[in-house]
Amino acid sequence: MAKIQKKHVSSEGWEGVAHWYTGWAGAGGSVYHRKLAIPAVMGLMNPREGQHILDMGCGPGALAQHICRRGAWYTGIDCSRKLLHFARRHNGGDRTRFLSGDATALQGHPELDEGSFDGVVFLLSLQDIHPLEGAIDSAAWALRPGGQLVIFMTHPCFRVPRQSGWGWDAQRKLHYRRIDRYLSALEVPMQPHERGRGTTRSYHRPLSQYFREIVQRRLVVDAFEEYAIPGEISRKFSGNADNRDIPLFLAVRARKY
Ligand SMILES: C[S@@+](CC[C@H](N)C(=O)[O-])C[C@H]1O[C@@H](n2cnc3c(N)ncnc32)[C@H](O)[C@@H]1O
C-alpha cells in the first residue's frame, strides 16, 4: 500500500485475473451486482428507448442486457482483452458493442464521439481506475449536455482497502467498523487471487476528492445514495449479520450542464 505519487496503469493485473473474475461474477454479475448494484444504477439512470449509454470499465458486461431491455443502446469500454472477449460472448447483442479503450483517456478514441452519450456509468469500477481526473474527464467528454453520470462504487468512508474492517467489542458486546486511514489517497495492491495471475490495484480517495473532480467538470450532483449489504446476502456470503447499518457502497448521479 502506498500514497499515490505517479501515474500507474490501473489496468495492470485485470488480464491476469480475468478468468477468476468471470468465474466469480458470472455473465449476469455477482450477487452484489444482481441484488444491489445493477438495480441501483438502473433506478438512477432510468435509461429510455433510443438512448446511448456508456459503461466505463465494463468488465464482463453484466449491465448490458438491462440497458438493452429498455430499448437503449449499450457501449462497454474496458482495457482487458479477456474480459471484453467474455463480455461479447455472453452479453453481446444487436444493441451492444464492447470496445477496447482506456477509461482515463477516451478523447480521440476512434469509435467514440464527444458529447454522444445520454448516460455514462461506472459500475463498481471507478475505485479501480486511476487517475480519477482522467476518468471523470473522459465521462464528461462523452456526455451530451443534459446527460447523466451514474457512479456505483465501494464507500470510501467505510471501506478503505486493507485499512478498515469489522471488530468485536467484548465489553459492549457489539460488532464495530474500524477505519484506520481515510484522508490520504492510497494505491493498494489487492491480494492475488488463488486462480489468478498478477495483482489488481484499488485506489482509495476521500469522498471530497470524488466530489471535487465531479463538480469541476460542469457536472451537478442531483442524487446521492448509500447502501448497506442486505442482511440475507451478508449472512450467506460474509457470515457477518451485524453490518446492516454501515453502508459499504454508494451511488452518485450528476447531470452535465
Ligand atoms: C471490479 S472490475 C468491474 C467490472 C464491471 N464493471 C463489473 O461490475 O463487473 C473493474 C474493471 O475496470 C477495468 N479497468 C480498470 N482500469 C481501466 C482503465 N483505465 N480503462 C478501462 N477499464 C479499466 C478493469 O479491466 C475491470 O474490468
From TrEMBL:
<keyword id="KW-0489">Methyltransferase</keyword>
<protein>
    <submittedName>
        <fullName>Methyltransferase type 11</fullName>
    </submittedName>
</protein>
<dbReference type="InterPro" id="IPR029063">
    <property type="entry name" value="SAM-dependent_MTases_sf"/>
</dbReference>
<dbReference type="InterPro" id="IPR013216">
    <property type="entry name" value="Methyltransf_11"/>
</dbReference>
<dbReference type="GO" id="GO:0032259">
    <property type="term" value="P:methylation"/>
</dbReference>
<dbReference type="Pfam" id="PF08241">
    <property type="entry name" value="Methyltransf_11"/>
</dbReference>
<keyword id="KW-0808">Transferase</keyword>
<feature type="domain" description="Methyltransferase type 11">
    <location>
        <begin position="54"/>
        <end position="151"/>
    </location>
</feature>
<keyword id="KW-0949">S-adenosyl-L-methionine</keyword>
<dbReference type="GO" id="GO:0008757">
    <property type="term" value="F:S-adenosylmethionine-dependent methyltransferase activity"/>
</dbReference>
